[in-house]
Amino acid sequence: MVGKIVEVEAYKGSDDPASHAFRGITLRNRPMFGEPGHAYIYFTYGNHFCLNVTTEQSGTPGAVLIRALEPVEGLNSMRKLRPNVSDLELTSGPGKLTKALGIDKSLNEVDMTKRGPLFIIDSGSEDFQMRCSPRVGIRRGTDRLWRVYVSDNPCVSRP
DNA sequence: TCGAAGATTCTA
DNA sequence: AGAATCTTCGAA
After folding, report:
1. Can you give the distance from the CA of residue A136 to the C1' of nucleotide B3 in angstroms?
2. Nucleotides of C under 7 A from a protein CB
């Protein structure tokens, strides 16, 4: 299955009250302190997984939450995992895309810079416009415009 | 050891 | 608007 990333949010460490890493390293957020380019996957609200990619050098917490994808390939597999929704809504949210791609904690900490069960590649030059906004679903740190999404893409969450 | 909150989604 | 649903964290 393949999807184009169309919406992300940035999370940092001790200076970011919305981040899991705000209060230091714990069992759950340990991947955020590890090597860059690896997956940080956590379970929330008793229902959903969320997928992040670590960004900072080892020892410095930082990650990017993948909030939405545009389905590109393997649509049939995604439809099986998420029945009763339109194609546009298959991956239009952080919990939705993990379900549509079958992502769970077994993929935690995999290296997403190398080909493997889960990885990210550069699709080359694409023509699109980016926008920023406050992050979604948090109570603190809402003053930071660290949600970045592709303008006019119907697959971004909460239009 | 226990209680509260949560980087959400679906249904009424 | 509200429930579902369970893990994680921090305080007691």
Report:
1. 26
2. 4-10
Please enumerate in sequence order all residues whose Cβ is within 8 A of that of A106, keeping only pairs 6 or more positions apart, or say none: none
Statement: residue A158 has pLDDT above 80: no
**Distance from CA(A48) to C1'(B1), angstroms, rounded:** 26
Looking at strand B, which nucleotides approach a protein CB closer than 7 A? 5-11
Find the residue closest to B9 using CA and C1' atoms.
A95
Whole-number percent of chain A with pLDDT over 70: 99
- Per residue in A15-31, is it b (16+ CB within 10 Å) or e — as a string? ebebbbbbeeeeeebeb
Dihedral of the alpha carbons of A37, A62, A59, A48, in degrees to the nearest 10: -80
Q: What is the per-residue pLDDT across A14-40, written as a single tens digit (0 to 9) for each?
A: 999 999 999 999 999 999 999 999 999
